[in-house]
Records
---
Amino acid sequence: MYDFDTINDRRNTDAAKWDVAPGELPMWVADMDFQTAPEIRDALADRVRHGIFGYTDVSEAWREAYAGWWQQRHALTMDRDALLFCTGVIPAISSTVRKLTTPNEKVIIQTPVYNIFFNCILNNGCRVLENPLLYDGAEYRMDFEGLEQCMADPQATLMILCNPHNPVGKIWGRETLARIGTLAKKYHVTVIADEIHCDITAPGTSYIPFASVSEECRLCSITCIAPTKAFNLAGLQTAAIYIPDPVLRHKIWRAINTDEVAEPNALAIPAAVSAFTKGGAWLDEMRAYVWENRRFVTEALSKELPDAYVVKGNATYLLWIDVGAFGGDSKEIADYLRKETGLFISAGTQYGTGGEHHLRMNIACPRALCEDGTKRLILGLRKYAASRD
């Protein structure tokens, strides 16, 4: 029903992803090369035709759209009054870090993890406390012994949980999330759950909202959500924060208002409402398409270059590729690939401990671009290996 095969020329549109040299193929930053759902484009066109773009309120329709989507898709019953508008997930996280910490305190993250988390912590005068994930060569799990040690540190009262996890593509299970909630209660730690990738999962699978797992999880959680990844709306600056505990919610409400990130632009509300009320069919087709891209890359590497392989994952449109067999760190390899083939993908070193021998590749693109990127990847890695002989 929907078209994901057409290649849309994004050059000369001020697209950050495509600000590259001629001949280069960018598969790095996490936005898609698909047009968003036509239902969303129609809603935005209607709003634009109105022609007046004054100050905009957060409507009840916005709250109902979020609550309805999370109830239907993720079996989480939201209190509508517990939802706050924010211009983005990262502004929400940064405001929360500023509000709930004092300078030189520690914030727990589980590396390798989204690199901007480091900025949210360091730019607010805090220190990063890494709880590296455990990797067995195929997939990842949490190190709970290490996590408890981190939470027991009296200087660590805040944790950023990535659920599903970017870049490793892991959907955390209910038991895992419950254990985090139990530890958080024991050590008085508040958990910021970044769940922005939650709707991009393998067909037939769904993530588990941290706040839905237990009363402990619910009361210690600040959940950051948005339609921006799932529907390719990042440039519209629209997100939400779900905070069940009223005292915690008041603090974050004050934080985002103080930081002036609590008011929507004229397109932010209709974009979210249309996504969550009319975008379901498009999303399901997109997920199936992306998972075919994932299958294509995984099988091509297995056949042509088995020393490089895609780490097992069931969420996000980002591949986490193990290139440890090639030697050298991932930044060196990523730089080589870009120089020799024009393929621009992300070095795992950006994501902290555990990313030294991995690359992150965005496959949310038409099949032809995915095939082109895969060919460049295989060619470049072969040349890189030969250069080290």
Note: DSSP finds 13 helices and 15 strands in the chain.
---
Amino acid sequence: MNLLDAIDDVLFDPMTLDPGDRKELLELLAEQELRTKRNWLDRYAPYDRQMEFHAAGKTHRERLLMAGNQLGKTYAGAAEVAYHLTGLYPDWWQGRRWDHATRWLAGSESAELTRKGVQRLLVGPPEAESLWGTGSIPHSCLKGFSRRQGVADALASVVVKHVSGDNSVIQLQSYDQGRSKWQADTIDGVWFDEEPPLDVYSEGLTRTTATSGLVFVTFTPLLGMSDVVMRYLEEKPLGSHVTTMTIAEAKHIAESERDRIIAGYPAHEREARANGIPIMGSGRVFPVAESMIKCDPFPIPSYWPRIVGIDFGWDHPAAVVWMAWDRDTDTLYVYDVWRARETPVDQQSLVIRKGGEWIPVAWPHDGLQHDKGSGEQLAKQYRDNKVEMLPKRATFEDGSNGLEAGVSQMLDRMRSRRLRVFSTLEPWFREFRLYHRKDGIIVKKADDLMAATRYGMMMRRFALSQAEAAVLRGDQLTPNTIAGFQVLDPVTGY
């Protein structure tokens, strides 16, 4: 039995070794640990959001991984760059692949931050050259490097062996060098760790034009709705993709630790540092902690009336929100959502009816507009597909339908815990986090589920339980189905 094999023997007592053997054992253990560190790319197992981010690279040229602090965003960026530099793609890889050596640019805000972040995760601890090769780039693939002048332990470039037999190269830059330093030759990809100025981002994007290369950003959005964030969240250029990762999705952080970690952040930075939500200050439409509105899913009582809110869409997504109303406490629960772009009315109608053909559907004023193709009113098209569209568009009881009034009522309900949302509905919360104002005016982009929720809330007075809906249809009721029935106005049908 050799010394390393002896470690696995439950009967082995290291104190039985003489000093020389103990020293040899410690040296062997240190060597084993070093070999393990030199191959951490083999052990990289991405979380769901990291996997989504990687996979999006197959079809999206520009990507943003927006996450809280210490959740694994830079780790994911370093792993992806290492795969592209080495060609050592794992079996689970669904993102873009190169079959040849590649050239990359990567960097952060300053030379020091590039060294502490990008360089450390790609190569290893900057201050310990003996440990270079313990980053995402395997030690066996490191072929050479050049040092950056004027910054201790900082590298300017790294040469990496590719499986094709050729060498890849990555240059390490920093934003404070200015745009001109990012004017490299044609390259295959750029990794911005932390948010770059727009001119630096644009220059990096330009360098990848000829190769149809990749550009991605990994950062915690502490600068709020900056130019680069606006590019991804509002301008949404063709071929771009956004992945948001929250502290709840980082499996290396125990659930019992999350509250303590979040409480340690300054109050105005908590959403950004914990959930990757841009700091917007007074710009957020709903400045409410998610914990105020989230609730665990539960079976909806049959006697609670329900209503569906719909926001029409084609090039921007159509959205549907299913809501249940606890009349006793005047609390609305969002229990299901659906959101998709370029989906025909007949397909949307199938989705809505599947959630309950009897549930009334609240719709906005543009349902009165005529479809350019058929000439029919949008609302009528849904009715023709057997959707229970309410007779009139969504309004308050006084007939008004103002956006600000609706948002104000939603906010009041959130603060008083009378608007709750099932915690499983991540698409709803993604919109909620990014719904914001610019110059005091609500930005009506990526707000489809928010709008559908507002319409359903405004028309909750017309919500029905299944038993109540059956009475309106004249169906035969049984003692079981009549539970919770309330008398409706036979004239209005509500």
Note: Residues 7-11, 479-494 have pLDDT under 50 and may be disordered.
---
Amino acid sequence: MNDLLNLSIAELGRGYRDGTLSPVAVTRAALDRIEATNGRLHSFNTVTADAALARATAAEAELKAGTDLGPMHGVPFGVKDIYDTEGVLTTCQSHVRAEFVPDANAHSVQLLLDGGAVMLGKCATIEFATGGPSAETFFPPARNPWNPEHVPGGSSSGSGAAVAAGITRMALGSDTGGSIRGPAALCGTVGMKPTYGRVSRRGVFPLSYTMDHCGPLSWTVEDAAITLNVIAGYDPLDPASADVPKVDYTAGLSKGVSGMRIGFVESWIEEEGNADPEAVAALRAAIDVLRASGATVETAQLSPYALYQACGRLLVLPECYAIHQHDLIERPELYGRPTRERLMAGAFVRGSDYVEALRLRRELAIEVNNVVLGQYDALIAPCSVVTAGRFDGLPDDPMKMSGMMTQPFNVTGSPAMSICVGYHSNGLPLSMQIVGRAFDEATVFQVGAAYEAATDWRERRPSLALEAADAAE
């Protein structure tokens, strides 16, 4: 079981095709690990075991018969519980949607299923992808597999926890202010937020129409690149979908960074007054690894982080209030308090402030995509400058949570990826953020793969996953 779940998506694919591995055996191992860990981890809300085993059985027969549907054929995956899944409960972690069963799949889920992938079930989230972890939600909040007394980040919390615990190599998430990269940072996985419009959001419950992104959380950069090859592409039924050419994101993974010019957004660290010294040291050490691998890394200047954050909040808050206005008025008691308070804040944003934020957003997007990334191939920025907090230490006000520095690249729409850069003395993961030009995810993957190849962080798993593996043997 342990060996099967440690195999990459590419390794699974090779084993399936040469007959040395079985999609059914891999799916059973994943389901067994959910059963072994979910009582403590709560990474999955709904497990579709029968459907998963049926799909794995079909994938095994198809591959034996010579029908190859692509790189995810027979590979298990998880789905954040805000993605529609045909015939499967989709709650958004909320009592508001406690009985909602969609009659169609979200576009990206359908692409994975069409490619033969095996859906394990629905991963926990934070209610409606906003607010904070709460015992008031329809399902219990997911916990961090490195230490279940700590949060896994949000809002793709179950996706990050499931990948870190070795249940699945990939789970779908969404990202409006860092909800892919945040759980990736705190759970020690890879979290890829593609360029705005690169992956269709159709069938995913919205938080902010102008800031929502969809993408994968995975164990390695290669796993994320393979996944993006499947789910990226133009969807004419998503108004925000970008009609741009598809590329093979795995093609440049072995190119390295020799000769690249990379900018380091160092000033943001000083802005975040509670940055953990070990987190900062790990980020600087990661930059040294890139330099040793042949890249030139220089300090890059961007506008203050606080300006990006203010711009993002003035856009997200009124948009999410507009989406929830009816239910907030008619049945506010069905929302958990952190969610309700954050959503209600959007009612107090003036139209003039929203318009000013739209104007500022364009200026900030030009600064990143045209000016700064006109000088560099990619940027390195802090992702989280603290480790995962404890559940019993969360602030009462969900707006006061700090330490995550991801929102700027939702404002600009740039592709951005969180990657693990080591572990704190407290045993929790540390992170950095790699940012590229619009629609240049390939370079982000290239930098991430080079760093990953030069380090051994992917060889470590949380004790909770190891305990589950030992129990299965």
Note: The radius of gyration is 21 Å.
